[in-house]
Amino acid sequence: MQLKHLKVDLPLVSEEKKQERRRLLKPDEELIGSLSTFMKKIEELQEDPDFVYFFRGHGYWQWGCEPALYRDAGYIKNEDILFKEMILRCPTDFNQSGSTFEMLVKMQHYSLPTRLLDITTNALVALFFACSGKKEARDIGEVVVFRVPRSFIRYYDSDRVSAVANIARRPSDFVLPETEERDKFNRDSQIHDLIHDIRREKPYFEPYIVPNHLGMVHCVKPKLDNPRIIRQDGAFFLFGINERKQQPAAIEPGWYLRNISKKRLLIAPTEGKTEIKGKERILSQLAKLGISHSTLFPEVDSVAKHISELYGVKS
Predict the structure, then answer these.
(1) pTM for this entry
(2) Is the dihedral angle over the CA atoms 100, 105, 109, 112 positive or is it negative?
(3) pLDDT for 205-233, tens place per residue?
(4) Once rounded to an integer, what is the mean pLDDT over residues 41-67?
(5) What pLDDT, on the 0 to 100 scale, is given for residue 304?
(6) What is the mean pLDDT of residues 100-124?
(7) Can you spell out the DSSP letters for 151-206?
(8) Contacts by 37-42 with C-beta closer than 8 Å and gap 24+?
(9) How far apart are CA 23 and CA 124, in angstroms?
(10) Long-range contacts formed by 223-228: CB under 8 A, 24+ apart
(11) ∠267-268-272 over CA atoms, to 5°?
(12) Structural domain boundaries of the chain?
């Protein structure tokens, strides 16, 4: 049996919707409809040893870059409960995790809303995610490019990462003290409780947190101990808070390449019944390079589902 490309069975896009898209696009913005065009855009990125490029693929170009935890008020209100319930119900899955950050990575893996946002160092992986959502197949996608200073990249064992990750354990009324004076900040009862949580994983942690570290988004490289992270060249933005827990910290505006170059990598939607264009065409081209759902999600259930779709007869 010969493998066939999985086609998305979607209605045609009306001319009215096409015109609406064109009005939303700026004059200098173009839609990328093939892998070769995308690669040309990536080759134009200027190399600088002091910066590292990260990418994130969106199925819809007007979505923001914020973690799932902040997309539902109920999630952030109950973040500490979500965290504890996950460990309570699946204790054997978390008894080997050494830190709160590593627990959050594993929870993110299983689709629990966390304060992590997935990013990747592989532009083609981000392109796949910009194209793969069936619900957004008829929408313009985007590969968001981040240019992060190398000095701002943290690793999984960083004390700053521990401090921000443990905000997940704090209740919904957690707020940052209204002072930038470090000694006063660290004497606050809320910070004292946060330090207590940090010392669960790092008994040697000094009871001293730099105030602005909790109000930042940190770019973090995780341990490569997860097949999915390895396949996806994964990393994370770990979100601190903006004064209180209900408000997320913001990604540094200067990290967005589109704020510097004023250019965006917008992906053309799937259009047409006879000629495959846009997202579906790109997915077919990526599959020839070994980038598909089954390679990026190597778990048995994901691979089985993908193979079934490939060989199934579309009605």
Answers:
(1) 0.88
(2) positive
(3) 999 999 999 999 999 999 998 888 999 99
(4) 95
(5) 74
(6) 96
(7) GGEEETT-HHHHHHHGGGGS-TT-B--S---HHHHHHSHHHHHHHHHHHHH-TT--
(8) 38/123, 38/127, 38/143, 38/265, 38/267, 38/282, 41/265, 42/123
(9) 28
(10) 223/102, 223/156, 226/105, 226/106, 226/109, 227/298, 227/299, 228/109, 228/296, 228/297, 228/298, 228/299
(11) 155
(12) 37-292
CA-based end-to-end distance of the chain: 18
Residue 183: partners with Cβ closer than 8 Å, 6 or more residues away: none
Are the C-beta atoms of 172 and 83 separated by less than 8 Å? no
Which residue, chain included where needed, has tokens 């701002």?
152
Token pair, residue 278, equals: 């846009």
Q: Please, are residues 268 and 277 in contact by the beta-carbon 8 Å criterion?
A: yes
Strands 265-267 and 116-120: what pairing? Answer: unpaired
Locate 16 and state its tokens. 């009215």
CA atoms within 13 A on the CB side of 235: 21
Core vs surface per residue 95-123: b (16+ CB within 10 A) or e:
eebebbbbbbbbbbbeebbbbbbbbbebb
pLDDT (tens digit per residue) in 128-178: 999 998 888 889 999 999 999 999 999 999 999 999 999 999 999 999 999
